[in-house]
Design brief:
eight-stranded mixed sheet, RNA-binding, about 450 residues, globular, BirA Bifunctional Protein, domain 2
RNA sequence: GUGGUUGUAGCUCAGCUGGUUAGAGCGCUUGAUUGUGGUUCAAGAGGUCGCCGGUUCGAAACCGGUCUUCCACCCCA
């Protein structure tokens, strides 16, 4: 080995078995996206920098991968900028493109650019990789796939209900029991901030509140006071830390608390409608609950906020999230188009399914049948049989060389092939083939003239 | 971006306060087995000790830098 090759930090190679499992998850998600009437789109892996920059806050800008201009990019930089060594002003001169950071902003750009050809409400889904110059951690990478479904041009809260059903359908299909779909509303958060007199520090307030289950009530109180929220105000929010009871009980508590806030009351009303409607429809396996501490993606969510928590028995946190953003396309000049959408966290779902052993066993079966190679004449007969099996849709292969039978068997074993077919001198003379079940070890002889008998048997199982 | 952590055979990892020729298990190759895998037994191959520099008579071990891994924070899927 000359020089050990490597891949960039936070990126991964996927083995055949990993790809099979990932495709299984993609397939299930995609199936339900389509059943719910969403249409796929794709957007470029990189966008013009000004499409992305400034859309995710200062923190986001830092995490966007910038692409260096082609050609002699330094030549166009004036001396003053070059000498000042100011990264921000220099970056805009030497880089005009950047890698996609999420799928939502490019989608908003897409909607604005194609507004005259789109029939609203427009339901689209998109499954593509995105890139972030983040420092990797468990379940967090610098290149990862997002699976998003969004609706634009529909104000109705029925959309929120539909997304809750969609989450439920996907996780039920994946066999993942005990997921908890948590719902909140930006208006409720704004209302709380208003009632306690912390309206001007809404973001700091919610970011602190969001950490409740992580750093505890005391930690939240400390962070809030660090951010300049008064002791009085903090005392007023304290009841929220221990909000308990059924969803409807929590709703009435909130209603009371927010009675003086017009915006907050609206949020409670919206939340109540969603819960009533979902109750009337029923869910397959997911739990639905109120979580007023939920405060993700505040940069653009304006109404409902959704997050899906993995089953409690696995230590994984959020495996999906979403919400309503009333003015996303506004930043690209198209006003009054409401959007709501959700995202599935593929990598984390993968880790959860792996930990709980929920992947179907057949995924690892890249081959159903392997014909052993006993030499030129026998191999020809085996290849005929292989061709026949392939035409019937069976994943079949012939070992390419007449290596030792022991070695060929070992190969079949390592590849997890359930059936091995032997056509040796004896079988050739008798115009037959032997099928060995690799799990039980049982062998059965079939006639080469009627291989469909074997296929029939194969499909019975 | 901040703090910590990790790197030794294909994989998982030992390797003592710095001291001969760097080990184990699994895997791999070959044989026991010229038409039967998983179990067993025997033999064998495989390592610039992440990379660069420094200290030392002597470095896998100590020091500095760098890359990488994982973790916490920031933020986020």
């Amino acid at each position: 080995m000359a020089q050990k090759p490597s891949i960039p930090k936070g990126t991964r190679d996927f083995t055949p078995s990993e790809v099979a499992k990932r495709n299984y998850i993609f397939g299930v998600i995609k199936k339900h996206f389509e059943i719910f009437g969403f249409q796929p789109i794709e957007t470029p892996s990189f966008e013009n920098s000004d499409t992305l920059m400034g859309k995710y806050g200062d923190e986001g800008d830092r995490l966007i991968f910038k692409i260096l201009n082609s050609g002699d990019f330094l030549n166009k930089v004036d001396d003053a900028t070059y000498i000042s060594k100011d990264s921000t002003s220099l970056t805009s001169k030497i880089s005009e493109k950047a890698l996609r950071y999420d799928l939502t902003v490019p989608f908003a750009r897409y909607v604005v650019m194609h507004q005259n050809e789109i029939d609203f409400p427009f339901k689209r889904y998109q499954i593509q990789p995105v890139w972030r110059a983040d420092r990797p951690q468990k379940g967090r990478f610098r290149e990862f796939y997002q699976c998003d479904a969004d609706v634009v041009g529909a104000d109705s809260l029925l959309q929120e209900v539909e997304f809750i059903q969609l989450y439920d359908a996907v996780f039920a299909d994946l066999g993942l029991e005990g997921v908890n779909i948590k719902v909140n509303n930006r208006k409720i958060l704004a209302g709380i901030a208003e009632v306690i007199g912390a309206k001007d520090v809404l973001i700091d307030f919610t970011v602190a509140l969001d950490k409740l289950d992580k750093i505890g009530a005391e930690g939240v109180k400390k962070e809030m006071s660090d951010k300049g929220i008064s002791v009085d105000s903090i005392a007023k929010v304290e009841p929220l830390f221990s909000l308990s009871g059924s969803n409807s009980e929590q709703l009435s508590t909130l209603k009371e608390l927010l009675a003086d806030s017009k915006e907050g009351s609206k949020g409670v009303e919206e939340l109540a409608f969603i819960f009533e409607t979902v109750d009337a429809l029923g869910l397959l396996s997911a739990q639905l609950s109120i979580d007023v501490t939920l405060a993700r993606g505040l940069n653009y969510y304006t109404g409902t906020i959704l997050e899906v928590a993995a089953p409690q028995k696995v230590d994984m946190g959020s495996i999906g999230g979403g919400g309503r953003y009333d003015d996303l396309t506004g930043i690209f000049g198209l006003k009054d188009v409401s959007g709501v959408g959700i995202s599935f966290g593929l990598d984390r779902i993968y880790l959860v399914l792996e930990e709980l052993g929920l992947f179907p066993e057949t995924l690892d079966q890249s081959l159903q049948v392997l014909c052993l190679n006993f030499g030129a004449k026998e191999a020809l007969a085996a290849l005929k049989l292989t061709t026949f099996l392939r035409k019937s849709g069976t994943k079949a292969d012939l070992y390419p060389s007449d290596a030792k039978i022991q070695k060929q068997f070992k190969y079949a074993n390592n590849r997890n092939v359930p059936y091995v077919i032997l056509i040796g001198e004896k079988e050739l003379a008798e115009n037959s083939f032997v099928v060995k079940n690799m799990e039980s070890g049982a062998q059965e002889t079939y006639n080469l003239k009627s291989p469909e008998d074997f296929i029939h048997q194969l499909k019975m199982e």
